Amino acid sequence: MPKFICVTGGVVSALGKGIATASIALLMKRRGFSVSPLKFDPYLNVDPGTMNPFQHGEVFVTDDGAETDLDLGHYERFLDEDLTRDNNVTAGQIYYSLIERERRGDFLGGTVQVVPHLTDEIKARVRKLALQGAQLVITEIGGTVGDIESLPFLEAVRQIWLEEKGRVAFVHMTLVPYIKTAGELKTKPTQHSVQKLREIGIQPDMILCRSDRKLSEETRDKIALFSNLPEESVIEALDVDVIYEIPLIFRREGVDDLILAKLGVVAPPPDLSDWEELVRVLKSLDEEVKIALCGKYVHLRDSYKSILEAFNHASFSNRVKVKLRFVDSEEVEREGAEVLLKGIHGLLVPGGFGQRGIEGKIAAIRYARENGIPFLGICLGMQVATIEFARNVLKMERANSTEFNPKTPHPVITILPEKKGVLYYGGTLRKGAYPARIKEGTLAHSIYGETEISERHRHRYEFNPEYLGAFEKGGMTASGLSPDGYLVEIMEIRDHPFFIGVQFHPEFKSRPMRVHPLFHAFVAAARKFKESA
Ligand code: GLN
Question: pTM score > 0.85 for this model?
Fold first, then answer.
Protein backbone atom coordinates (compact mmCIF):
# COMPACT_ATOMS: atom_id res chain seq x y z
CA MET A 1 0.00 0.00 0.00
CA PRO A 2 1.46 3.40 -0.94
CA LYS A 3 1.91 6.01 1.78
CA PHE A 4 1.75 9.76 1.60
CA ILE A 5 3.67 12.60 3.19
CA CYS A 6 2.34 16.10 2.81
CA VAL A 7 4.46 19.19 3.42
CA THR A 8 2.80 22.55 3.99
CA GLY A 9 4.15 25.93 5.01
CA GLY A 10 2.96 28.71 7.24
CA VAL A 11 3.67 32.29 8.29
CA VAL A 12 5.73 33.38 5.26
CA SER A 13 6.84 31.94 1.95
CA ALA A 14 10.45 31.21 0.97
CA LEU A 15 11.11 29.20 4.12
CA GLY A 16 12.94 26.47 2.27
CA LYS A 17 10.02 24.07 2.09
CA GLY A 18 11.36 22.73 -1.19
CA ILE A 19 14.69 21.83 0.37
CA ALA A 20 12.92 20.36 3.40
CA THR A 21 10.77 18.24 1.09
CA ALA A 22 13.82 17.17 -0.92
CA SER A 23 15.63 16.28 2.31
CA ILE A 24 12.77 14.14 3.57
CA ALA A 25 12.62 12.47 0.15
CA LEU A 26 16.34 11.70 0.33
CA LEU A 27 16.08 10.25 3.84
CA MET A 28 13.19 8.03 2.77
CA LYS A 29 15.00 6.87 -0.33
CA ARG A 30 18.04 5.99 1.75
CA ARG A 31 15.81 4.03 4.06
CA GLY A 32 14.83 1.84 1.15
CA PHE A 33 11.63 3.35 -0.25
CA SER A 34 10.89 4.29 -3.81
CA VAL A 35 9.92 7.93 -3.48
CA SER A 36 8.11 10.29 -5.80
CA PRO A 37 7.93 14.01 -4.93
CA LEU A 38 5.10 16.20 -6.15
CA LYS A 39 5.08 19.98 -6.08
CA PHE A 40 1.69 21.65 -6.25
CA ASP A 41 1.79 25.28 -7.29
CA PRO A 42 -1.49 27.02 -6.48
CA TYR A 43 -1.12 29.81 -9.07
CA LEU A 44 -3.29 29.86 -12.19
CA ASN A 45 -0.50 29.94 -14.75
CA VAL A 46 -0.36 26.63 -16.58
CA ASP A 47 3.37 26.45 -16.01
CA PRO A 48 6.15 28.86 -15.03
CA GLY A 49 7.53 28.87 -18.61
CA THR A 50 6.17 32.28 -19.46
CA MET A 51 6.47 33.82 -16.00
CA ASN A 52 8.85 36.65 -15.26
CA PRO A 53 12.07 35.54 -13.53
CA PHE A 54 11.56 38.45 -11.14
CA GLN A 55 8.49 36.72 -9.80
CA HIS A 56 9.33 33.14 -10.27
CA GLY A 57 13.06 32.50 -10.29
CA GLU A 58 14.53 29.77 -12.43
CA VAL A 59 12.39 27.65 -14.70
CA PHE A 60 13.63 24.10 -14.23
CA VAL A 61 13.39 21.87 -17.29
CA THR A 62 12.91 18.11 -17.05
CA ASP A 63 13.97 15.47 -19.58
CA ASP A 64 10.43 15.27 -20.91
CA GLY A 65 10.46 18.98 -21.64
CA ALA A 66 8.26 20.27 -18.83
CA GLU A 67 8.96 23.79 -17.61
CA THR A 68 8.69 23.43 -13.87
CA ASP A 69 9.16 25.08 -10.53
CA LEU A 70 12.72 25.34 -9.28
CA ASP A 71 11.90 22.99 -6.41
CA LEU A 72 11.97 20.17 -8.95
CA GLY A 73 15.67 20.97 -9.26
CA HIS A 74 16.13 20.40 -5.54
CA TYR A 75 14.19 17.15 -5.74
CA GLU A 76 16.28 15.86 -8.64
CA ARG A 77 19.54 16.87 -7.01
CA PHE A 78 18.71 15.35 -3.63
CA LEU A 79 17.15 12.17 -5.00
CA ASP A 80 19.60 11.85 -7.90
CA GLU A 81 16.68 10.84 -10.11
CA ASP A 82 15.11 12.30 -13.25
CA LEU A 83 11.59 13.55 -12.72
CA THR A 84 8.82 14.27 -15.20
CA ARG A 85 5.95 16.68 -15.80
CA ASP A 86 3.88 14.56 -13.43
CA ASN A 87 6.00 15.78 -10.52
CA ASN A 88 4.89 19.42 -10.80
CA VAL A 89 1.25 20.34 -11.07
CA THR A 90 -0.18 23.87 -11.05
CA ALA A 91 -3.70 25.02 -10.28
CA GLY A 92 -3.71 26.33 -13.86
CA GLN A 93 -3.24 22.79 -15.19
CA ILE A 94 -5.92 21.37 -12.91
CA TYR A 95 -8.50 23.97 -13.92
CA TYR A 96 -7.50 23.69 -17.57
CA SER A 97 -8.08 19.95 -17.72
CA LEU A 98 -11.29 20.26 -15.73
CA ILE A 99 -12.68 22.92 -18.06
CA GLU A 100 -11.67 20.89 -21.10
CA ARG A 101 -13.58 17.93 -19.73
CA GLU A 102 -16.55 20.13 -18.97
CA ARG A 103 -16.58 21.42 -22.57
CA ARG A 104 -16.35 17.87 -23.86
CA GLY A 105 -19.47 17.05 -21.90
CA ASP A 106 -17.79 14.61 -19.54
CA PHE A 107 -19.93 15.80 -16.64
CA LEU A 108 -23.21 15.02 -18.40
CA GLY A 109 -24.85 18.29 -17.50
CA GLY A 110 -23.88 18.17 -13.83
CA THR A 111 -22.65 21.23 -11.98
CA VAL A 112 -18.85 21.30 -11.91
CA GLN A 113 -17.56 22.36 -8.49
CA VAL A 114 -14.37 22.90 -6.53
CA VAL A 115 -15.43 20.09 -4.22
CA PRO A 116 -15.58 17.34 -5.43
CA HIS A 117 -14.42 17.90 -9.03
CA LEU A 118 -11.37 20.04 -8.57
CA THR A 119 -10.30 18.17 -5.45
CA ASP A 120 -10.82 14.82 -7.22
CA GLU A 121 -8.56 15.99 -10.01
CA ILE A 122 -5.90 17.00 -7.45
CA LYS A 123 -6.17 13.67 -5.67
CA ALA A 124 -5.85 11.85 -9.00
CA ARG A 125 -2.53 13.63 -9.63
CA VAL A 126 -1.22 12.45 -6.26
CA ARG A 127 -2.39 8.88 -6.79
CA LYS A 128 -0.99 8.81 -10.31
CA LEU A 129 2.51 8.83 -8.82
CA ALA A 130 1.62 5.93 -6.53
CA LEU A 131 0.23 4.06 -9.55
CA GLN A 132 3.53 4.66 -11.33
CA GLY A 133 5.15 2.61 -8.57
CA ALA A 134 6.11 5.00 -5.77
CA GLN A 135 5.84 3.52 -2.29
CA LEU A 136 5.94 7.01 -0.85
CA VAL A 137 4.47 10.09 -2.50
CA ILE A 138 5.73 13.31 -0.93
CA THR A 139 3.51 16.25 -1.76
CA GLU A 140 4.63 19.80 -1.22
CA ILE A 141 1.94 22.45 -1.41
CA GLY A 142 3.35 25.77 -2.58
CA GLY A 143 2.41 29.02 -0.93
CA THR A 144 1.33 29.53 2.64
CA VAL A 145 -1.52 28.08 4.66
CA GLY A 146 -4.22 30.75 4.70
CA ASP A 147 -3.87 31.63 1.00
CA ILE A 148 -7.22 31.41 -0.74
CA GLU A 149 -5.77 29.68 -3.79
CA SER A 150 -4.15 26.84 -1.85
CA LEU A 151 -7.42 25.83 -0.16
CA PRO A 152 -8.48 23.23 -2.77
CA PHE A 153 -5.09 21.55 -2.46
CA LEU A 154 -5.29 21.39 1.33
CA GLU A 155 -8.85 20.09 1.10
CA ALA A 156 -7.67 17.41 -1.34
CA VAL A 157 -4.88 16.17 0.92
CA ARG A 158 -7.29 16.20 3.86
CA GLN A 159 -9.54 13.91 1.86
CA ILE A 160 -6.61 11.65 1.05
CA TRP A 161 -5.93 11.45 4.78
CA LEU A 162 -9.55 10.47 5.33
CA GLU A 163 -9.49 7.84 2.62
CA GLU A 164 -6.06 6.41 3.37
CA LYS A 165 -6.45 6.11 7.15
CA GLY A 166 -3.07 5.80 8.85
CA ARG A 167 -1.08 6.09 5.65
CA VAL A 168 -0.68 9.87 5.58
CA ALA A 169 1.72 12.10 7.54
CA PHE A 170 1.51 15.90 7.65
CA VAL A 171 4.62 18.02 8.04
CA HIS A 172 4.15 21.74 8.59
CA MET A 173 6.99 24.23 8.26
CA THR A 174 6.83 27.63 9.92
CA LEU A 175 8.97 30.57 10.88
CA VAL A 176 9.83 31.27 14.49
CA PRO A 177 11.12 34.83 14.30
CA TYR A 178 13.51 36.44 16.74
CA ILE A 179 12.26 39.82 17.88
CA LYS A 180 15.22 41.95 18.76
CA THR A 181 13.52 44.46 21.03
CA ALA A 182 11.98 41.67 23.10
CA GLY A 183 15.13 39.59 22.95
CA GLU A 184 13.19 36.40 22.28
CA LEU A 185 11.84 33.97 19.73
CA LYS A 186 8.14 34.37 19.11
CA THR A 187 5.81 31.42 18.69
CA LYS A 188 2.56 33.25 17.96
CA PRO A 189 2.81 33.20 14.14
CA THR A 190 3.36 29.43 14.34
CA GLN A 191 0.38 29.02 16.66
CA HIS A 192 -1.83 30.92 14.24
CA SER A 193 -0.67 29.01 11.22
CA VAL A 194 -1.28 25.67 12.94
CA GLN A 195 -4.73 26.89 13.96
CA LYS A 196 -5.42 27.75 10.34
CA LEU A 197 -4.41 24.27 9.28
CA ARG A 198 -6.59 22.62 11.93
CA GLU A 199 -9.53 24.77 10.88
CA ILE A 200 -9.26 23.07 7.49
CA GLY A 201 -9.21 19.73 9.26
CA ILE A 202 -5.51 18.96 9.09
CA GLN A 203 -3.66 18.11 12.27
CA PRO A 204 0.07 18.34 11.56
CA ASP A 205 2.18 15.45 12.78
CA MET A 206 5.29 17.52 12.93
CA ILE A 207 6.29 21.18 12.98
CA LEU A 208 9.56 22.18 11.33
CA CYS A 209 10.55 25.47 12.90
CA ARG A 210 12.76 27.67 10.81
CA SER A 211 14.68 30.05 13.00
CA ASP A 212 18.02 31.75 13.13
CA ARG A 213 18.79 30.54 16.63
CA LYS A 214 18.16 27.58 18.91
CA LEU A 215 14.70 27.06 20.32
CA SER A 216 14.63 27.06 24.11
CA GLU A 217 12.94 24.21 25.93
CA GLU A 218 10.15 26.61 26.80
CA THR A 219 9.62 27.68 23.18
CA ARG A 220 9.41 24.09 22.03
CA ASP A 221 6.94 23.24 24.79
CA LYS A 222 4.74 26.14 23.86
CA ILE A 223 4.66 25.24 20.16
CA ALA A 224 3.98 21.61 21.06
CA LEU A 225 1.12 22.52 23.36
CA PHE A 226 -0.60 24.83 20.89
CA SER A 227 -0.04 22.41 18.01
CA ASN A 228 -1.47 19.49 19.94
CA LEU A 229 1.77 17.53 19.55
CA PRO A 230 4.34 15.81 21.75
CA GLU A 231 7.44 17.92 22.29
CA GLU A 232 9.69 15.68 20.16
CA SER A 233 7.54 16.45 17.10
CA VAL A 234 8.61 20.09 17.22
CA ILE A 235 11.76 20.16 15.13
CA GLU A 236 14.35 22.86 15.07
CA ALA A 237 15.40 23.77 11.51
CA LEU A 238 18.19 26.28 11.96
CA ASP A 239 19.66 28.33 9.13
CA VAL A 240 22.63 26.63 7.43
CA ASP A 241 25.35 27.68 5.00
CA VAL A 242 25.31 24.49 2.98
CA ILE A 243 21.85 23.25 2.00
CA TYR A 244 23.11 19.69 1.70
CA GLU A 245 23.41 19.69 5.48
CA ILE A 246 19.63 19.78 5.94
CA PRO A 247 19.08 16.02 5.51
CA LEU A 248 21.81 15.38 8.07
CA ILE A 249 20.18 17.78 10.52
CA PHE A 250 16.76 16.26 9.94
CA ARG A 251 18.22 12.83 10.57
CA ARG A 252 19.76 14.00 13.85
CA GLU A 253 16.47 15.56 14.87
CA GLY A 254 14.65 12.33 14.15
CA VAL A 255 12.44 13.65 11.34
CA ASP A 256 12.48 10.43 9.31
CA ASP A 257 11.92 8.24 12.39
CA LEU A 258 8.92 10.30 13.44
CA ILE A 259 7.37 10.15 9.97
CA LEU A 260 7.88 6.41 9.65
CA ALA A 261 6.40 5.88 13.11
CA LYS A 262 3.37 7.90 12.07
CA LEU A 263 3.03 5.84 8.89
CA GLY A 264 3.44 2.65 10.88
CA VAL A 265 6.41 1.27 8.97
CA VAL A 266 9.82 0.15 10.05
CA ALA A 267 12.91 0.46 7.88
CA PRO A 268 16.67 0.19 8.40
CA PRO A 269 18.54 3.43 9.17
CA PRO A 270 19.83 5.40 6.17
CA ASP A 271 23.46 5.40 5.09
CA LEU A 272 24.36 9.06 4.61
CA SER A 273 28.14 8.77 4.67
CA ASP A 274 28.53 10.27 1.18
CA TRP A 275 26.42 13.27 2.19
CA GLU A 276 28.43 13.69 5.38
CA GLU A 277 31.57 13.76 3.26
CA LEU A 278 30.00 16.27 0.86
CA VAL A 279 29.09 18.64 3.67
CA ARG A 280 32.42 18.19 5.45
CA VAL A 281 34.34 19.03 2.26
CA LEU A 282 32.15 21.98 1.23
CA LYS A 283 32.52 23.52 4.68
CA SER A 284 36.26 23.09 4.85
CA LEU A 285 37.48 24.29 1.44
CA ASP A 286 39.77 27.28 1.60
CA GLU A 287 41.50 27.46 -1.77
CA GLU A 288 39.38 29.66 -4.04
CA VAL A 289 38.82 30.28 -7.72
CA LYS A 290 36.96 33.38 -8.80
CA ILE A 291 34.34 32.90 -11.46
CA ALA A 292 32.24 35.72 -12.88
CA LEU A 293 28.63 35.05 -13.74
CA CYS A 294 27.62 37.73 -16.21
CA GLY A 295 23.87 37.97 -16.73
CA LYS A 296 20.78 40.09 -16.54
CA TYR A 297 19.30 38.87 -13.26
CA VAL A 298 22.42 38.82 -11.11
CA HIS A 299 20.62 40.45 -8.21
CA LEU A 300 18.11 37.58 -8.19
CA ARG A 301 20.04 34.51 -7.15
CA ASP A 302 16.98 32.28 -7.58
CA SER A 303 17.10 32.86 -11.32
CA TYR A 304 20.33 30.88 -11.54
CA LYS A 305 19.62 28.28 -8.87
CA SER A 306 20.77 25.23 -10.79
CA ILE A 307 23.92 26.96 -11.98
CA LEU A 308 24.82 27.92 -8.42
CA GLU A 309 24.25 24.34 -7.30
CA ALA A 310 26.26 22.93 -10.21
CA PHE A 311 29.13 25.11 -9.03
CA ASN A 312 28.76 23.65 -5.53
CA HIS A 313 29.01 20.19 -7.05
CA ALA A 314 32.11 21.23 -8.99
CA SER A 315 33.59 22.73 -5.81
CA PHE A 316 33.17 19.34 -4.20
CA SER A 317 34.55 17.36 -7.13
CA ASN A 318 37.54 19.68 -7.60
CA ARG A 319 38.10 20.29 -3.90
CA VAL A 320 38.27 24.01 -4.54
CA LYS A 321 35.84 26.69 -3.48
CA VAL A 322 34.11 28.56 -6.31
CA LYS A 323 33.76 32.18 -5.39
CA LEU A 324 31.17 33.70 -7.69
CA ARG A 325 31.25 37.30 -8.76
CA PHE A 326 27.87 38.41 -10.05
CA VAL A 327 28.34 40.86 -12.88
CA ASP A 328 25.39 42.75 -14.33
CA SER A 329 25.72 42.69 -18.11
CA GLU A 330 24.25 46.18 -18.42
CA GLU A 331 26.91 47.46 -16.08
CA VAL A 332 29.54 45.97 -18.39
CA GLU A 333 28.05 48.14 -21.14
CA ARG A 334 28.56 51.23 -19.01
CA GLU A 335 31.87 50.49 -17.34
CA GLY A 336 33.67 48.09 -19.66
CA ALA A 337 34.63 44.45 -19.20
CA GLU A 338 38.12 45.10 -17.89
CA VAL A 339 36.93 47.05 -14.85
CA LEU A 340 34.37 44.48 -13.81
CA LEU A 341 36.15 41.27 -14.76
CA LYS A 342 39.70 41.97 -13.65
CA GLY A 343 41.14 39.16 -11.55
CA ILE A 344 38.63 36.47 -12.50
CA HIS A 345 39.70 32.92 -13.34
CA GLY A 346 36.66 31.99 -15.35
CA LEU A 347 33.59 33.53 -17.00
CA LEU A 348 30.16 32.00 -17.28
CA VAL A 349 27.42 33.57 -19.36
CA PRO A 350 24.09 31.89 -18.58
CA GLY A 351 20.88 31.53 -20.56
CA GLY A 352 18.39 34.31 -21.04
CA PHE A 353 15.85 35.95 -23.27
CA GLY A 354 15.64 39.41 -24.79
CA GLN A 355 18.00 42.10 -25.92
CA ARG A 356 18.79 43.88 -22.68
CA GLY A 357 22.43 43.52 -21.64
CA ILE A 358 23.49 41.64 -24.78
CA GLU A 359 26.24 44.07 -25.75
CA GLY A 360 27.67 43.79 -22.23
CA LYS A 361 27.78 40.03 -22.53
CA ILE A 362 29.55 40.35 -25.87
CA ALA A 363 32.17 42.63 -24.30
CA ALA A 364 32.64 40.24 -21.37
CA ILE A 365 33.10 37.26 -23.68
CA ARG A 366 35.56 39.16 -25.83
CA TYR A 367 37.60 39.92 -22.71
CA ALA A 368 37.68 36.22 -21.77
CA ARG A 369 38.53 35.13 -25.31
CA GLU A 370 41.35 37.62 -25.74
CA ASN A 371 42.85 36.97 -22.33
CA GLY A 372 42.76 33.19 -22.41
CA ILE A 373 40.30 33.11 -19.51
CA PRO A 374 38.23 29.90 -19.32
CA PHE A 375 34.74 30.52 -20.65
CA LEU A 376 31.54 28.53 -20.44
CA GLY A 377 28.51 29.81 -22.35
CA ILE A 378 25.13 28.29 -21.67
CA CYS A 379 22.32 28.58 -24.22
CA LEU A 380 22.09 32.35 -24.75
CA GLY A 381 25.69 32.44 -23.51
CA MET A 382 26.71 30.17 -26.37
CA GLN A 383 24.73 32.20 -28.88
CA VAL A 384 26.32 35.43 -27.76
CA ALA A 385 29.78 33.84 -27.93
CA THR A 386 29.22 33.03 -31.58
CA ILE A 387 28.02 36.59 -32.25
CA GLU A 388 31.16 37.94 -30.59
CA PHE A 389 33.33 35.61 -32.65
CA ALA A 390 31.57 36.55 -35.88
CA ARG A 391 31.95 40.26 -35.23
CA ASN A 392 35.46 40.44 -33.85
CA VAL A 393 37.26 37.51 -35.45
CA LEU A 394 35.37 36.87 -38.67
CA LYS A 395 34.83 40.61 -39.16
CA MET A 396 31.12 40.35 -39.77
CA GLU A 397 30.62 43.61 -37.97
CA ARG A 398 26.86 43.63 -37.59
CA ALA A 399 26.47 39.93 -36.93
CA ASN A 400 23.66 39.21 -34.51
CA SER A 401 20.86 36.91 -33.51
CA THR A 402 17.55 37.63 -35.21
CA GLU A 403 16.14 37.69 -31.68
CA PHE A 404 17.91 41.03 -31.18
CA ASN A 405 18.10 42.39 -34.71
CA PRO A 406 15.80 40.78 -37.25
CA LYS A 407 17.48 42.78 -40.03
CA THR A 408 21.10 41.85 -39.27
CA PRO A 409 23.14 41.18 -42.45
CA HIS A 410 24.73 38.19 -40.65
CA PRO A 411 22.09 36.21 -38.75
CA VAL A 412 24.50 33.75 -37.14
CA ILE A 413 21.78 32.84 -34.67
CA THR A 414 18.28 32.51 -36.05
CA ILE A 415 15.03 30.59 -36.07
CA LEU A 416 15.57 27.66 -38.38
CA PRO A 417 13.12 27.30 -41.27
CA GLU A 418 10.92 24.48 -40.00
CA LYS A 419 10.14 26.45 -36.89
CA LYS A 420 9.13 29.69 -38.64
CA GLY A 421 5.48 30.51 -38.76
CA VAL A 422 4.64 28.87 -35.45
CA LEU A 423 3.10 31.68 -33.51
CA TYR A 424 1.80 30.04 -30.38
CA TYR A 425 3.80 31.86 -27.72
CA GLY A 426 5.65 29.54 -25.40
CA GLY A 427 4.97 26.63 -27.69
CA THR A 428 7.79 27.02 -30.13
CA LEU A 429 10.70 26.41 -27.84
CA ARG A 430 12.87 23.35 -28.20
CA LYS A 431 12.40 21.87 -24.76
CA GLY A 432 13.65 18.83 -22.90
CA ALA A 433 16.24 16.17 -23.59
CA TYR A 434 17.83 15.82 -27.03
CA PRO A 435 20.71 13.56 -28.00
CA ALA A 436 23.90 14.95 -29.49
CA ARG A 437 27.07 13.54 -31.02
CA ILE A 438 30.44 14.81 -29.98
CA LYS A 439 33.39 14.97 -32.35
CA GLU A 440 36.44 13.07 -31.25
CA GLY A 441 39.58 14.97 -30.46
CA THR A 442 37.73 18.12 -29.38
CA LEU A 443 37.65 19.86 -26.00
CA ALA A 444 34.05 18.68 -25.63
CA HIS A 445 35.20 15.12 -26.17
CA SER A 446 37.91 15.40 -23.53
CA ILE A 447 35.36 16.85 -21.11
CA TYR A 448 32.64 14.25 -21.62
CA GLY A 449 34.89 11.30 -22.42
CA GLU A 450 32.16 9.99 -24.71
CA THR A 451 30.59 10.73 -28.07
CA GLU A 452 26.89 10.23 -27.36
CA ILE A 453 25.26 12.58 -24.90
CA SER A 454 21.79 13.73 -23.95
CA GLU A 455 21.16 17.22 -22.62
CA ARG A 456 18.19 19.41 -21.78
CA HIS A 457 17.18 22.35 -23.92
CA ARG A 458 14.95 25.40 -23.65
CA HIS A 459 15.35 27.88 -26.46
CA ARG A 460 13.84 29.12 -29.66
CA TYR A 461 16.88 30.18 -31.68
CA GLU A 462 19.70 28.05 -33.10
CA PHE A 463 23.10 28.49 -34.64
CA ASN A 464 22.66 29.15 -38.35
CA PRO A 465 24.33 26.24 -40.19
CA GLU A 466 24.97 28.45 -43.23
CA TYR A 467 27.77 30.07 -41.28
CA LEU A 468 29.41 26.90 -40.06
CA GLY A 469 32.05 26.85 -42.82
CA ALA A 470 33.20 30.37 -42.00
CA PHE A 471 33.38 29.64 -38.29
CA GLU A 472 35.32 26.43 -38.77
CA LYS A 473 37.80 28.22 -41.01
CA GLY A 474 38.17 31.04 -38.51
CA GLY A 475 38.94 28.75 -35.56
CA MET A 476 35.59 28.03 -33.93
CA THR A 477 34.46 24.42 -34.21
CA ALA A 478 31.08 22.80 -33.84
CA SER A 479 32.20 19.97 -31.56
CA GLY A 480 28.69 18.73 -30.83
CA LEU A 481 25.85 18.29 -33.32
CA SER A 482 22.40 16.77 -33.32
CA PRO A 483 22.53 13.14 -34.59
CA ASP A 484 21.30 14.27 -38.03
CA GLY A 485 24.14 16.80 -38.16
CA TYR A 486 21.78 19.76 -38.61
CA LEU A 487 21.66 21.48 -35.25
CA VAL A 488 24.80 22.88 -33.66
CA GLU A 489 24.82 21.94 -29.98
CA ILE A 490 28.39 22.79 -28.90
CA MET A 491 30.85 25.40 -30.16
CA GLU A 492 34.45 25.76 -29.06
CA ILE A 493 37.52 27.77 -29.98
CA ARG A 494 40.46 25.66 -31.03
CA ASP A 495 43.36 27.86 -29.92
CA HIS A 496 42.06 28.85 -26.52
CA PRO A 497 42.74 26.87 -23.33
CA PHE A 498 39.04 26.53 -22.49
CA PHE A 499 36.35 28.28 -24.47
CA ILE A 500 33.14 26.37 -24.94
CA GLY A 501 29.51 27.26 -25.51
CA VAL A 502 26.62 24.84 -25.34
CA GLN A 503 23.13 25.30 -26.73
CA PHE A 504 21.65 23.27 -23.85
CA HIS A 505 21.51 23.64 -20.08
CA PRO A 506 24.04 21.35 -18.39
CA GLU A 507 23.19 22.82 -14.98
CA PHE A 508 19.90 20.92 -14.91
CA LYS A 509 21.68 17.59 -14.90
CA SER A 510 24.35 18.26 -12.31
CA ARG A 511 24.04 16.34 -9.05
CA PRO A 512 25.99 16.57 -5.79
CA MET A 513 27.57 13.14 -6.26
CA ARG A 514 27.61 13.27 -10.06
CA VAL A 515 28.82 16.70 -11.02
CA HIS A 516 28.12 17.64 -14.62
CA PRO A 517 31.35 17.12 -16.60
CA LEU A 518 31.20 20.63 -18.12
CA PHE A 519 31.06 22.29 -14.69
CA HIS A 520 33.76 20.00 -13.34
CA ALA A 521 36.07 20.74 -16.26
CA PHE A 522 35.30 24.45 -16.25
CA VAL A 523 36.25 24.81 -12.59
CA ALA A 524 39.36 22.69 -13.15
CA ALA A 525 40.33 24.99 -16.03
CA ALA A 526 39.73 28.05 -13.86
CA ARG A 527 42.05 26.64 -11.21
CA LYS A 528 44.69 25.95 -13.85
CA PHE A 529 44.34 29.48 -15.16
CA LYS A 530 44.74 30.82 -11.63
CA GLU A 531 47.87 28.77 -11.08
CA SER A 532 49.41 29.86 -14.36
CA ALA A 533 48.62 33.55 -13.86
N1 GLN B 1 16.82 33.53 -26.07
C2 GLN B 1 17.51 32.42 -26.62
C3 GLN B 1 16.60 31.52 -27.44
O4 GLN B 1 15.41 31.59 -27.32
C5 GLN B 1 18.24 31.62 -25.54
C6 GLN B 1 17.34 30.96 -24.58
C7 GLN B 1 18.04 30.47 -23.35
O8 GLN B 1 19.15 30.90 -23.05
N9 GLN B 1 17.43 29.59 -22.60
O10 GLN B 1 17.07 30.71 -28.21
Answer: yes
